[in-house]
Protein backbone atom coordinates (compact mmCIF):
# COMPACT_ATOMS: atom_id res chain seq x y z
CA UNK A 1 0.00 0.00 0.00
CA UNK A 2 1.46 3.34 -1.07
CA UNK A 3 2.01 5.77 1.75
CA UNK A 4 -0.13 8.87 1.50
CA UNK A 5 2.94 11.09 1.57
CA UNK A 6 1.26 14.11 0.00
CA UNK A 7 -1.81 14.33 2.24
CA UNK A 8 -2.52 18.01 2.92
CA UNK A 9 -0.71 19.27 -0.18
CA UNK A 10 -2.35 20.79 -3.23
CA UNK A 11 -0.86 20.08 -6.66
CA UNK A 12 -1.59 22.08 -9.80
CA UNK A 13 -0.90 19.99 -12.91
CA UNK A 14 -1.17 20.81 -16.61
CA UNK A 15 -1.74 18.07 -19.19
CA UNK A 16 -2.49 17.48 -22.85
CA UNK A 17 -1.93 19.68 -25.88
CA UNK A 18 -3.08 23.21 -26.57
CA UNK A 19 -4.90 24.23 -29.73
CA UNK A 20 -4.03 27.56 -31.30
CA UNK A 21 -6.92 28.79 -33.40
CA UNK A 22 -6.38 29.76 -37.04
CA UNK A 23 -10.03 30.42 -37.80
CA UNK A 24 -13.33 29.16 -36.33
CA UNK A 25 -12.75 25.64 -37.74
CA UNK A 26 -8.97 25.08 -37.74
CA UNK A 27 -6.14 25.06 -35.25
CA UNK A 28 -2.43 24.37 -34.86
CA UNK A 29 -1.96 21.47 -32.46
CA UNK A 30 0.50 18.81 -31.36
CA UNK A 31 0.53 15.09 -30.68
CA UNK A 32 0.11 15.10 -26.89
CA UNK A 33 -2.70 12.71 -25.92
CA UNK A 34 -2.79 13.72 -22.25
CA UNK A 35 -1.93 10.15 -21.16
CA UNK A 36 1.25 11.04 -19.26
CA UNK A 37 -0.36 14.00 -17.47
CA UNK A 38 -3.59 12.21 -16.58
CA UNK A 39 -1.65 9.21 -15.22
CA UNK A 40 0.48 11.57 -13.13
CA UNK A 41 -2.62 13.38 -11.82
CA UNK A 42 -4.03 10.02 -10.65
CA UNK A 43 -0.72 8.90 -9.15
CA UNK A 44 -0.31 12.13 -7.16
CA UNK A 45 -3.92 11.77 -6.00
CA UNK A 46 -3.16 8.26 -4.77
CA UNK A 47 -0.36 9.75 -2.65
CA UNK A 48 -3.01 11.88 -0.94
CA UNK A 49 -2.53 15.17 -2.82
CA UNK A 50 -5.47 17.34 -3.78
CA UNK A 51 -4.92 17.66 -7.51
CA UNK A 52 -6.13 20.56 -9.65
CA UNK A 53 -5.90 19.43 -13.28
CA UNK A 54 -5.74 22.02 -16.06
CA UNK A 55 -6.05 20.16 -19.33
CA UNK A 56 -6.06 20.89 -23.02
CA UNK A 57 -8.39 18.88 -25.28
CA UNK A 58 -7.92 15.10 -25.01
CA UNK A 59 -10.02 12.02 -25.76
CA UNK A 60 -9.43 10.61 -22.26
CA UNK A 61 -11.91 10.32 -19.39
CA UNK A 62 -11.07 12.88 -16.69
CA UNK A 63 -9.30 11.16 -13.77
CA UNK A 64 -10.61 11.43 -10.22
CA UNK A 65 -9.14 14.75 -9.04
CA UNK A 66 -10.16 17.54 -6.65
CA UNK A 67 -10.81 19.94 -9.53
CA UNK A 68 -10.63 19.68 -13.32
CA UNK A 69 -10.47 22.69 -15.62
CA UNK A 70 -10.68 22.16 -19.38
CA UNK A 71 -9.03 24.73 -21.65
CA UNK A 72 -8.21 24.98 -25.33
CA UNK A 73 -5.44 27.52 -26.00
CA UNK A 74 -2.13 28.33 -24.30
CA UNK A 75 -3.52 31.70 -23.20
CA UNK A 76 -6.52 29.99 -21.59
CA UNK A 77 -4.20 27.48 -19.90
CA UNK A 78 -2.05 30.29 -18.54
CA UNK A 79 -5.11 32.16 -17.19
CA UNK A 80 -6.40 29.02 -15.42
CA UNK A 81 -2.96 28.27 -13.96
CA UNK A 82 -2.44 31.82 -12.72
CA UNK A 83 -5.87 31.78 -11.05
CA UNK A 84 -5.12 28.53 -9.18
CA UNK A 85 -1.40 28.71 -8.44
CA UNK A 86 -1.50 30.82 -5.28
CA UNK A 87 -3.41 28.07 -3.45
CA UNK A 88 -1.07 25.27 -4.59
CA UNK A 89 2.13 23.85 -3.06
CA UNK A 90 3.42 22.11 -6.19
CA UNK A 91 3.18 22.85 -9.90
CA UNK A 92 3.73 20.03 -12.42
CA UNK A 93 3.85 21.05 -16.11
CA UNK A 94 3.12 17.97 -18.21
CA UNK A 95 1.24 19.84 -20.93
CA UNK A 96 2.64 20.27 -24.42
CA UNK A 97 1.94 23.99 -24.65
CA UNK A 98 2.25 25.53 -28.11
CA UNK A 99 5.22 27.89 -28.19
CA UNK A 100 3.57 30.03 -30.90
CA UNK A 101 0.03 31.01 -31.88
CA UNK A 102 -1.35 32.62 -35.07
CA UNK A 103 -0.91 36.39 -34.77
CA UNK A 104 -4.32 37.17 -36.20
CA UNK A 105 -6.83 34.32 -36.04
CA UNK A 106 -9.43 34.87 -38.78
CA UNK A 107 -12.97 35.64 -37.65
CA UNK A 108 -14.36 33.60 -40.55
CA UNK A 109 -13.28 30.36 -42.22
CA UNK A 110 -10.22 30.98 -44.40
CA UNK A 111 -11.12 30.30 -48.06
CA UNK A 112 -8.79 28.44 -50.39
CA UNK A 113 -8.49 31.25 -52.96
CA UNK A 114 -4.74 31.77 -52.83
CA UNK A 115 -2.08 29.31 -54.11
CA UNK A 116 0.07 30.08 -51.09
CA UNK A 117 -0.79 31.07 -47.57
CA UNK A 118 1.68 32.54 -45.11
CA UNK A 119 0.92 32.34 -41.41
CA UNK A 120 2.43 34.83 -39.00
CA UNK A 121 2.96 33.37 -35.54
CA UNK A 122 3.69 35.11 -32.26
CA UNK A 123 5.29 33.66 -29.11
CA UNK A 124 3.06 32.30 -26.39
CA UNK A 125 3.95 33.02 -22.75
CA UNK A 126 5.94 30.26 -21.04
CA UNK A 127 3.56 29.20 -18.27
CA UNK A 128 6.12 27.11 -16.40
CA UNK A 129 8.75 29.87 -16.43
CA UNK A 130 6.17 32.38 -15.17
CA UNK A 131 5.14 30.10 -12.31
CA UNK A 132 8.76 29.40 -11.34
CA UNK A 133 9.41 33.17 -11.22
CA UNK A 134 6.61 33.85 -8.69
CA UNK A 135 7.57 34.88 -5.16
CA UNK A 136 7.39 32.56 -3.43
CA UNK A 137 7.23 29.92 -6.15
CA UNK A 138 5.53 26.57 -5.60
CA UNK A 139 7.76 23.49 -5.85
CA UNK A 140 8.08 23.30 -9.65
CA UNK A 141 8.38 20.20 -11.82
CA UNK A 142 8.79 20.65 -15.56
CA UNK A 143 9.02 18.23 -18.46
CA UNK A 144 11.37 18.41 -21.43
CA UNK A 145 10.33 16.79 -24.70
CA UNK A 146 13.36 16.47 -26.95
CA UNK A 147 14.21 14.62 -30.16
CA UNK A 148 17.99 14.82 -29.60
CA UNK A 149 20.55 15.67 -26.94
CA UNK A 150 17.85 15.02 -24.37
CA UNK A 151 20.03 15.42 -21.28
CA UNK A 152 21.78 18.61 -22.40
CA UNK A 153 18.53 20.35 -23.40
CA UNK A 154 16.73 19.20 -20.26
CA UNK A 155 19.47 20.45 -17.94
CA UNK A 156 19.53 23.78 -19.79
CA UNK A 157 15.74 24.12 -19.42
CA UNK A 158 15.89 23.35 -15.70
CA UNK A 159 18.51 26.04 -15.14
CA UNK A 160 16.97 28.64 -17.47
CA UNK A 161 13.50 28.33 -15.89
CA UNK A 162 14.78 27.83 -12.31
CA UNK A 163 12.93 24.54 -11.73
CA UNK A 164 13.18 22.21 -8.75
CA UNK A 165 12.93 19.12 -10.97
CA UNK A 166 12.72 18.29 -14.67
CA UNK A 167 11.54 15.04 -16.26
CA UNK A 168 13.08 14.54 -19.69
CA UNK A 169 11.71 12.31 -22.41
CA UNK A 170 12.69 11.49 -25.95
CA UNK A 171 9.95 12.19 -28.48
CA UNK A 172 9.65 11.30 -32.15
CA UNK A 173 11.37 7.90 -31.76
CA UNK A 174 10.19 4.31 -32.13
CA UNK A 175 9.02 4.00 -28.53
CA UNK A 176 7.73 6.28 -25.80
CA UNK A 177 6.92 9.99 -25.94
CA UNK A 178 3.66 11.30 -27.40
CA UNK A 179 0.47 9.28 -27.79
CA UNK A 180 1.89 5.88 -26.85
CA UNK A 181 0.96 3.91 -23.73
CA UNK A 182 4.59 3.60 -22.62
CA UNK A 183 7.35 6.09 -21.95
CA UNK A 184 10.77 6.47 -20.32
CA UNK A 185 12.00 9.47 -18.31
CA UNK A 186 15.24 10.78 -16.89
CA UNK A 187 14.55 13.03 -13.93
CA UNK A 188 17.04 15.71 -12.84
CA UNK A 189 17.16 17.84 -9.70
CA UNK A 190 19.81 19.82 -7.86
CA UNK A 191 22.63 17.33 -7.43
CA UNK A 192 20.71 14.24 -8.50
CA UNK A 193 19.20 12.22 -11.32
CA UNK A 194 17.12 9.06 -11.74
CA UNK A 195 16.53 7.00 -14.89
CA UNK A 196 13.03 5.56 -15.15
CA UNK A 197 13.20 3.02 -18.00
CA UNK A 198 10.54 2.29 -20.64
CA UNK A 199 7.32 1.12 -18.96
CA UNK A 200 3.56 1.76 -19.14
CA UNK A 201 2.73 5.42 -18.44
CA UNK A 202 0.53 4.44 -15.48
CA UNK A 203 3.45 2.73 -13.72
CA UNK A 204 5.93 5.40 -14.79
CA UNK A 205 3.60 8.03 -13.32
CA UNK A 206 3.55 6.22 -9.96
CA UNK A 207 7.36 6.13 -9.87
CA UNK A 208 7.64 9.79 -10.84
CA UNK A 209 4.98 10.80 -8.28
CA UNK A 210 6.94 8.98 -5.53
CA UNK A 211 10.14 10.74 -6.60
CA UNK A 212 8.42 14.15 -6.64
CA UNK A 213 6.97 13.49 -3.16
CA UNK A 214 10.39 12.47 -1.84
CA UNK A 215 12.12 15.60 -3.16
CA UNK A 216 9.28 17.90 -2.11
CA UNK A 217 9.12 16.52 1.44
CA UNK A 218 12.88 16.69 1.82
CA UNK A 219 12.63 20.39 1.04
CA UNK A 220 9.48 21.26 2.96
CA UNK A 221 9.30 19.08 6.04
CA UNK A 222 11.78 19.85 8.78
O1 LIG B 1 0.40 13.48 -23.59
P1 LIG B 1 1.16 12.23 -24.02
O2 LIG B 1 0.75 11.76 -25.39
O3 LIG B 1 1.10 11.14 -22.97
O4 LIG B 1 2.72 12.64 -24.17
C1 LIG B 1 3.46 13.00 -23.04
C2 LIG B 1 4.38 14.18 -23.32
C3 LIG B 1 5.46 13.75 -24.33
C4 LIG B 1 3.58 15.37 -23.88
C5 LIG B 1 5.01 14.59 -21.94
O5 LIG B 1 5.72 13.50 -21.41
C6 LIG B 1 5.92 15.81 -22.08
O6 LIG B 1 7.09 15.73 -22.41
N1 LIG B 1 5.35 17.03 -21.81
C7 LIG B 1 6.03 18.31 -22.05
C8 LIG B 1 5.93 18.65 -23.51
C9 LIG B 1 6.61 19.95 -23.85
O7 LIG B 1 5.96 20.84 -24.35
O8 LIG B 1 7.90 20.04 -23.55
P2 LIG B 1 8.85 21.33 -23.85
O9 LIG B 1 10.23 20.81 -23.72
O10 LIG B 1 8.45 22.00 -25.14
O11 LIG B 1 8.49 22.33 -22.68
C10 LIG B 1 9.23 22.39 -21.49
C11 LIG B 1 8.33 22.62 -20.28
O12 LIG B 1 7.77 23.93 -20.32
C12 LIG B 1 7.15 21.66 -20.17
O13 LIG B 1 6.99 21.34 -18.79
C13 LIG B 1 5.95 22.47 -20.68
O14 LIG B 1 4.73 22.10 -20.05
C14 LIG B 1 6.36 23.89 -20.26
N2 LIG B 1 5.86 24.96 -21.15
C15 LIG B 1 6.32 25.04 -22.44
C16 LIG B 1 5.91 26.09 -23.25
C17 LIG B 1 5.00 27.05 -22.74
N3 LIG B 1 4.58 28.06 -23.49
N4 LIG B 1 4.55 26.95 -21.47
C18 LIG B 1 4.97 25.92 -20.66
O15 LIG B 1 4.54 25.83 -19.50
UniProtKB/TrEMBL annotation:
Residue span(s) of domain DNA/pantothenate metabolism flavoprotein C-terminal: 6-214
Its EC number(s): 4.1.1.36, 6.3.2.5
Q: Where is this region: Phosphopantothenate--cysteine ligase?
A: 11-222
Catalysed reactions, semicolon-separated:
(R)-4'-phosphopantothenate + L-cysteine + CTP = N-[(R)-4-phosphopantothenoyl]-L-cysteine + CMP + diphosphate + H(+); N-[(R)-4-phosphopantothenoyl]-L-cysteine + H(+) = (R)-4'-phosphopantetheine + CO2
Q: Which GO terms describe its biological process?
A: coenzyme A biosynthetic process; pantothenate catabolic process
The answer to whether UniProt assigns keyword Metal-binding to this entry is yes
| Binding-site residues for CTP, renumbered to this chain | 99, 109, 125-128, 143, 157, 161
UniProt pathway: Cofactor biosynthesis; coenzyme A biosynthesis; CoA from (R)-pantothenate: step 2/5; Cofactor biosynthesis; coenzyme A biosynthesis; CoA from (R)-pantothenate: step 3/5
Q: Which domain of life is it from?
A: Bacteria
Q: MF terms per GO, please?
A: FMN binding; metal ion binding; phosphopantothenate--cysteine ligase activity; phosphopantothenoylcysteine decarboxylase activity
**Record keywords:** Decarboxylase, Flavoprotein, FMN, Ligase, Lyase, Magnesium, Metal-binding, Multifunctional enzyme
Which prosthetic group or cofactor does it need?
A: Mg(2+); FMN
For this chain, the family text in UniProt reads: In the N-terminal section; belongs to the HFCD (homo-oligomeric flavin containing Cys decarboxylase) superfamily.
* Described function: Catalyzes two steps in the biosynthesis of coenzyme A. In the first step cysteine is conjugated to 4'-phosphopantothenate to form 4-phosphopantothenoylcysteine, in the latter compound is decarboxylated to form 4'-phosphopantotheine. Catalyzes two sequential steps in the biosynthesis of coenzyme A. In the first step cysteine is conjugated to 4'-phosphopantothenate to form 4-phosphopantothenoylcysteine. In the second step the latter compound is decarboxylated to form 4'-phosphopantotheine.
Give the protein's recorded name: Coenzyme A biosynthesis bifunctional protein CoaBC
Note the residue range shown relative to the complete protein: 172 to 393 of 395
Amino acid sequence: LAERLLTGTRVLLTAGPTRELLDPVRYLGNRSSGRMGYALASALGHLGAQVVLVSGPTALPVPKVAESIQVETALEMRAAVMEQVASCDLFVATAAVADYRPAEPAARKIKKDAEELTLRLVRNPDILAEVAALTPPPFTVGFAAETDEVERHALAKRTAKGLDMIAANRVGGERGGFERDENALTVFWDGGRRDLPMMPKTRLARELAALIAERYLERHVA
